[in-house]
Write a sequence for this structure.
């Protein structure tokens, strides 16, 4: 590889941690206009906009919780995974030194923070070898507060009256977001997955968070449900930070996969407004960020 | 907008109502999960001067060290407060605390504690770490950095005009409870209509 892979990944982290995507920023600006002027909801959204501008200008992390580092690598045939693992670990250590990341990897047994974001399965890297002639590295910084608001349901759920169909999915997503209140730093970005076993379902829900603002599902019934749910969630009145208001969620993204006949899981990956992820591609020794 | 400066008297606290927006100045101290566990289990005396009539900030900041050995807050928004629910009422009573800054609000045990101790819950804007760090004018000292690690340590800081919303007052009113009651009702209506 002719490029410095480690440095390129440090830059991916810097961008993700400090520079908020414009389309999401516009969504927050629109939401701010939709709140009553002078209300706490309006103040909260305008403060968020001010914070986004400041973080971008100074390359400061938007939020001090720079999240758990999830990295997805798609690489061409013939390359070694260890090349990426070594560069990613070195990049994470460097990004922590430069304060693009807070030390967020704690030994579950001893409670000791590794202070550099590396450890057992930290950062969490998912490899996938594909048939393209280029590599793609995707980063998802998932905050701890919003991760605590994520949920998984086993349908049928008699308490909620949720059966094994899209109506049932709609019900459990409403329940999850209502339970979250403002705790996940609303307005949230809601990734939903239906099907798979428990682990695959949670993974697919999280991967929905890589979708672009306004990107509807290719399946018309899911696209419809995404729109309906966004209206449902915003009618709950939880509002930014749980202050009450019209904006509880910014987006709902739903994905499905096949399931065992006996199981029907729905996972909800709650992401805070501070959506921090990024994608870089490496083709012919050239790095592109998206 | 009301201005508050630490140390804060019980009378000032009792004049605040849920929904008020305030600007906080003065010395406050950060504490989160490990710190709260420690305060309840060990009740260390070295914290008393920092906590008396002052405010606890639920925050695990990103901090950089200057060349002269002093510290600077880089990003420092609030963390979710509900994790401290088992501890907070005891901490406030033990250390005579006047306010808790965090996000997401807290439960009934803390609500009762606020009334008993004469304290309020102050909500910061979650995720706005870069902006909030600008309100930190000085890092006075850090306690138990080695033992607890940077996000969990007690950071004693001086803030100026830190914008906050009183969401739980000392008279038993909680905006979080009101918002949750309304959204529960709406969620039930929705579920029944689907």
């Amino acid at each position: 590889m002719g490029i410095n892979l480690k440095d390129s990944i440090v830059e991916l982290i810097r961008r993700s941690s400090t520079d908020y995507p414009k389309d999401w920023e516009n969504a927050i600006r629109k939401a701010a206009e939709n709140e009553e002027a002078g209300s706490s909801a309006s103040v909260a959204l305008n403060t968020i906009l001010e914070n986004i501008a400041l973080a971008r200008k100074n390359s400061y992390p938007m939020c001090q919780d720079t999240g758990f580092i999830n990295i997805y690598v798609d690489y061409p045939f013939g390359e070694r995974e260890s090349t990426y693992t070594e560069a990613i670990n070195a990049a994470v250590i460097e990004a922590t030194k430069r304060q693009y990341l807070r030390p967020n990897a704690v030994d579950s047994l001893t409670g000791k923070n590794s202070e550099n974001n590396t450890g057992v399965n930290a950062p969490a890297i998912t490899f996938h070898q594909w048939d393209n002639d280029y590599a793609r590295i995707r980063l998802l910084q998932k905050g701890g507060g919003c991760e605590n608001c994520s949920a998984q349901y086993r349908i049928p759920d008699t308490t909620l009256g949720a059966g094994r169909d899209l109506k049932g999915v709609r019900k459990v997503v409403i329940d999850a977001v209502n339970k979250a209140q403002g705790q996940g730093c609303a307005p949230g970005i809601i990734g939903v997955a239906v099907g798979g076993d428990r682990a695959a379902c949670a993974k697919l829900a999280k991967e929905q968070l890589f979708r672009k603002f306004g990107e509807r599902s290719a399946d018309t019934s899911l696209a419809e449900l995404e729109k309906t749910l966004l209206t449902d969630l915003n009618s709950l009145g939880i509002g930014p930070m749980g202050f009450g208001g019209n904006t509880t969620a910014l987006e709902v993204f739903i994905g499905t996969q096949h399931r065992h006949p006996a199981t029907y899981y729905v996972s909800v990956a709650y992401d805070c407004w501070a959506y921090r992820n990024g994608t870089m591609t490496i083709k012919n020794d050239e790095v592109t960020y998206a | 907008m009301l201005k508050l400066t630490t140390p804060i008297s019980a009378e000032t606290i009792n004049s605040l109502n849920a929904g008020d927006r305030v600007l906080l100045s003065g010395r406050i101290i950060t504490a989160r999960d490990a710190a709260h566990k420690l305060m309840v289990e060990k009740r260390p005396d070295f914290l008393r001067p920092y906590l008396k009539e002052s405010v606890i900030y639920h925050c695990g900041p990103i901090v950089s060290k200057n060349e002269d050995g002093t510290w600077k807050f880089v990003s420092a928004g609030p963390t979710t407060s509900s994790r401290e629910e088992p501890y907070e009422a005891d901490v406030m009573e033990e250390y005579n605390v006047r306010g808790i800054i965090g996000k997401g609000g807290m439960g009934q045990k803390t609500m009762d504690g606020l009334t008993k101790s004469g304290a309020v819950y102050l909500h910061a804007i979650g995720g706005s770490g870069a902006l909030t760090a600008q309100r930190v004018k000085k890092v006075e000292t850090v306690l138990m950095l080695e033992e607890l690690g940077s996000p969990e340590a007690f950071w004693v800081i001086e803030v100026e005009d830190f914008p906050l919303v009183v969401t739980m007052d000392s008279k038993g009113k909680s905006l979080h409870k009101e918002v949750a009651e309304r959204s529960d009702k709406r969620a039930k209506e929705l579920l029944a209509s689907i």
Notes: Residues 5-15+62-143+276-289 of chain A form a domain with the 60s Ribosomal Protein L30; Chain: A; fold (CATH 3.30.1330). The helical segments of chain A are 5-18, 22-33, 40-58, 81-97, 144-147, 166-180, 198-207, 220-234. Chain A has a mean pLDDT of 97.
